[in-house]
Design brief:
With 180 residues, the chain is an alpha/beta fold. It folds into two domains: 53 residues; 110 residues, Formyl transferase, N-terminal domain (Rossmann fold, 3-Layer(aba) Sandwich), CATH 3.40.50.170. Helices cover 41% and strands 17% of the residues. It is globular. The chain starts with a helix and ends with a helix.
């Protein structure tokens, strides 16, 4: 999220961050967004009796801020088909693996257990599956014999901070071009 905010402040960048939402009240991203003058709200999923009522609150907040594109960054909730369809083609996610390999959680540990020599991150569109949406871009990093999950995660995170702002720029320019 920080990398997206920093990129969006650059002159000529085609996307503006208008809202940060977390489903966790203590999320660091809320305070970080506010420091940058960005509206930041918590919509705690625990306050809602159903997934749909939680997602309706998310949808209402996004639409009330005239959001055109949703960038998930650390949002660890699986979204229902209802929400996914409402934001189809306008919702991005970053995942710490070279999809379609290592979907889901604990990617760094799984890469090391598999003895892979390459790892990385993927920015993709969100669809109704878990980490199955259309791949937009990927960045790779080498895996070294003495890597730990933490060391490998840090190497991948550096690439995430470079890749996600680049992809957001590309997708925002495409949306802008199609709107004209």
């Amino acid at each position: 999220m920080d990398a997206l905010i920093r990129a969006s402040k650059a002159e000529g960048y085609p996307a503006k961050i208008v809202l940060v939402i977390s489903n966790r009240p203590n999320a660091d991203g809320l305070a970080k967004a506010q420091k940058h003058g960005i509206t930041a709200i918590c919509i705690d999923h625990k306050d809602y009796k159903t997934r749909k009522s939680f997602e309706q609150a998310l949808d209402t907040a996004l639409r009330s801020h005239k959001t055109e594109l949703v960038c998930n960054a650390g949002f660890m909730r699986i979204l229902s088909p209802w929400f996914v369809k409402r934001w189809q083609g306008r919702q991005l996610n970053i995942h710490p693996s070279l999809l379609p390999k290592y979907k889901g959680l604990h990617t760094h540990e799984r890469v090391l257990e598999a003895g892979a020599t390459e790892h990385g991150c993927t920015v993709h569109y969100i669809d109704e599956g878990v980490d199955t949406g259309g791949i937009i871009a990927q960045a790779t990093v080498p895996v070294y014999p003495n890597d730990t999950p933490q060391v490998l995660a840090a190497r991948v995170l550096k690439q995430e901070h470079l890749l996600y702002p680049q992809v957001l720029k590309q997708v925002a320019e495409k949306i802008s071009k199609n709107a004209n």
